[in-house]
Specification:
Layout lengths: L7 H13 L2 H4 L1 E12 L5 E6 L4 E6 L1 H4 L11 E11 L4 E11 L3 H16 L17 E6 L4 H13 L4 E6 L7 H14 L5 E6 L13 H8 L5 E5 L7 H5 L2 E3 L2 H8 L3 H39 L2 H44 L1 H5 L5 E3 L9 H5 L3 E6 L2 E6 L9
Parallel strand pairs: 3-5, 6-7, 6-8, 8-9, 9-10
Antiparallel strand pairs: 1-2, 1-4, 2-3, 4-5, 11-12, 12-13
Amino acid sequence: MFSKVLTVSELNSYIKRVVDNDYILKNSRIKGEISNLKIHSSGHIYFSLKDEDSKISAVMFRSYGENISFQPQNGMNVEVKGRVSVYIKDGAYQIYIEEMKIDGLGDLNKAYEELKAKLLREGLFDDTYKKPLPINPISIAVVTSPTGAAIRDIINVISRRNPYVDIKIFPTLVQGIHAAANIESAIKAANNESSTELIILARGGGSIEELWAFNEEVVAYAIHNSKKPIITGIGHETDFTIADFASDKRASTPSAAAEIAVTSFVEIDDKLNYYKHKLYSAIKRNFEMEKSRTNILASKLKQYNPVAYIANQYTFIDGYKVRLNKAIENNLKFQKNRLVYLNSMLNANNPLGIISKGYSILRNEDGKVISTKVALAEEKKVEVILQDGSTFINIGVGEEHGK
């Protein structure tokens, strides 16, 4: 039997055709453990898929890799769907993967709990790092898929509650191997927007694999390092991701996140009207109180008006004037009568009155009245006071001048 001699390339090409035409090999479903994982900058994923006894090389091109909902990791058990083919250049066969999913949730839950414990030890979940939410933000950044239901729900809720809030969308992948890095970049971009007051990080519901990007360490640190407060609204109420623990506030859904972020304009208006009424009532009450106080002061001012007081004092002064004049008049009358009396007494006892009756008064040279003969006998010269004047006469000492 004749056998054709083949080149290496021809052999590998032949084997490739045989393999590619095999129904089972081109529709393979394989499960195994990921090892030697390498995610190329081009987006292609290269790794080995192994079990206890064997392994096979695997490649997942970017167009398929973007559709997976989790981040592949070494040691992770997966189930893949693809086709087995031969790489002619090396003569090696490998599986070209089109779909990949976690083989059970055990590995994901384990990775979730391990990362959660690690970040908890590092303090990323501490309340001391939680930033307070602004009360009435007017500029909100939303980090989410621009085409998902989450962004529509958020816009509807915010617009309904307060149509004056400015919403800036920072689009990002929310699942797939590039989603975590994409989310990190979007959060940084939202922080760099100076007008941003609050960030909403959101995604609609999904399986744990679909939400896995929000369980990545890079996303947790991006939230922790954000200078602007972040509210997370990821999945459904029962879904808790690492991002929720790292955020400043966790909401159960994207719509709930929008509810928390924005105060209802109607509520604000009602509150303003309430305080307006309360302020008006307080002003009115204070005005009435001050008016009453002013009336009391006016009454007191009228009562103690200095003009009235001075007028009353003039009345008192007039009374005092009348009484003073009366007292002066009475005193003058009294003093006049007393003077008349004293004058009559003086006239009655005036020695000159005796002289007018023909008598005279003798005084010595010292002015003393001489009233006895003995005193007269001792004088040489005496003054004789008569009705029309006085004169001095010499008298011999020891002579008797009368009986």
